[in-house]
Amino acid sequence: xxxxxxxxxxxxxxxxxxxxxxxxxxxxxxxxxxxxxxxxxxxxxxxxxxxxxxxxxxxxxxxxxxxxxxxxxxx
Length: 75
What we know:
With 75 residues, the chain is mainly alpha-helical. Helix content is 51%, strand content 11%. It has a two-stranded antiparallel ribbon with strand order 1-2. The protein has one domain (7-61).
């Protein structure tokens, strides 16, 4: 399974979500002329950014689909 995004789309989306992060850091919601806008919460934005950055990394590395990582812990 490959990513559904192009590199340009991912870069544009990451820029948009970074702008949303900056906006959300100044306050959760505000009202203008009786209309209220509620912004995303910072953890949701971070999660979306992590997803998009993972998609970009996968696209740039040529990796296709999810990668299974196994780890052993020492006792």
